[in-house]
Structures are given as C-alpha cells and as structure tokens.
Amino acid sequence: MAITFDLFGTLVSASRPDDPAEALAEELRTRDVSVPENWEELYATPQVDIEPGRELSLPDHVRAALEESGVDTDSPGQSRRPDGPGSGEADVVTEAVRAAFDRRVNRRDGAGTAIEAASRRGRVGLLSNCSVPGLVDRTLERVALDGRFDAVLASVDVGYRKPDRRAFQAAADRLGVDVTDLVHVGDNPETDGGIEDVGGIAILLENVSLSAVPDRLSEVRIQ
C-alpha cells in the first residue's frame, strides 16, 4: 500500500492571480517581451494540439501564443539566464510564468499530521496537477513540507494530468506498488477521484476533513 496526496486545495491553500493573462503580461513586459494587443484572446485559446489527459506546460502555451503573433521569444534580449539560487537556468517566458503564479501560499491545518499518519501505513507521495515548472517544489519549500515525501510528481513533469490513469500509474510506479494498492487523498472529485477508475481508493476532502484523514487511513484495508 502507498498513499499519495494532492497539493493545492488539499495540503496547502494558495492564492491565484485575479486575471492570469494580465498577470503574465505584466511579468513579460518587465522582461522586455513584447505583448500583443490581443493577448487576452491568445492566452485563452489553445495553441498546441495535445491528446486528452496529456499535460502541456504553461510556458510552452505562452511561448506558442506569443509566436502566433510573431513575437520572437528567443531574441538576444530574451536569452536564457539564471532563475534564482539553486534553480538552474530558465528562459524569460518560464521566468515570467513562475513569477506570475508564485503567490501567497499557506499550509493547511492538519497537513503535517496527515502525512505522518500516511507514512506509518506505507510509502508516501505527492501527485499534483500543476503546469508551472518548479512551482510544486517551490511551494513545498515555502510551507516546510519538502523532504516529507518518497516521491513528488507534478503533472508538468509526469506529462499527464489527473484523472488520467497514466498520472496515477506514474505515481504507483515511483512508489513501487500496483496502482490498485494506491490510496489518493485530494479535494477534487473530478480529478482526484480518478484513482477509483483504476482500482485504487480515493479519500476526498468533500467527505472527510483533513484532520480526519489519519483515522480514515487507519480504516483502509488493501485486498
């Protein structure tokens, strides 16, 4: 048996930009990237064809939207540059995306206790839908939950979004269990509840409070 947790809305609460397109436009302009006048429309329109269940990184979407209007995101003034201590290098589009979405975040009451309870039942992982590279790791650091998991999987790295079965399979593979032996804790029935379609067990916060997750986990029996 292994247990995975969702991140945003489950272990942490996080603020989002009121207007994501405008927040991104502002960050792009500060990095000398020309923003088209029809940016709101471009941002809201899919630019890359992907199969259902696949994840497209937000920087790739933004880059494609800019290029649709003839904006060269690889010009000399927009070359790769350091993205902060310990984070390697990132192009300016990725920098802008991270800056726009790296907002205030708070660890939810009971998060640490729930993770500790899970670790007494088996290996513990994090499985989060997140299209912003590096944001999951950054969030875990900010709420002092980094180092608490045997595996951390963000959809932008895995390539698939919950509820796609391949996202849960990737988590099960990393944790060394069959997907039917996976228990997933999350807040969204449509995405996190997808574990049940592959034979696993969902613990949803619409039915169980985060503080009650340890008791719920103690009741779980894997056949």
**Low-pLDDT windows of residues:** 76-89
The description of the largest β-sheet is: 5 strands, parallel
Based on Cα principal axes, name the global outline: elongated
The helix/strand order is EEHHHEEHEHEHEHHEEH
Class by SSE composition: alpha/beta
User: What's the overall average pLDDT, rounded?
Assistant: 91
Cα distance spanning the termini: 10 Å
Query: What percent of residues adopt helix (DSSP H or I)?
Result: 25-40%
Q: Report the C-alpha radius of gyration, rounded.
A: 19 Å
Characterization of this structure:
The protein has 223 residues and is of the alpha/beta class. Helices cover 35% and strands 15% of the residues. It contains nine helices and nine strands. The chain has helices spanning 20-30, 39-44, 58-68, 92-101, 111-119, 135-142, 155-158, 165-175, 213-219, and strands at 2-5, 12-14, 81-82, 89-90, 105-107, 123-128, 151-154, 182-186, 201-204. The strands form three sheets. The protein has a five-stranded parallel β-sheet. A two-stranded antiparallel ribbon has the order 2-5. Helix 6 links the parallel strand 6 and strand 7. The protein is elongated. The model is unreliable at 76-89 (pLDDT under 50).
Features:
two-stranded antiparallel ribbon; 9 helices; 35% helix
How is this fold's topology laid out?
Layout: E1 2-5, E2 12-14, H1 20-30, H2 39-44, H3 58-68, E3 81-82, E4 89-90, H4 92-101, E5 105-107, H5 111-119, E6 123-128, H6 135-142, E7 151-154, H7 155-158, H8 165-175, E8 182-186, E9 201-204, H9 213-219
Parallel strand pairs: 1-6, 1-8, 6-7, 8-9
Antiparallel strand pairs: 2-5, 3-4
Helix pairs in contact: 1-4, 3-4, 5-9
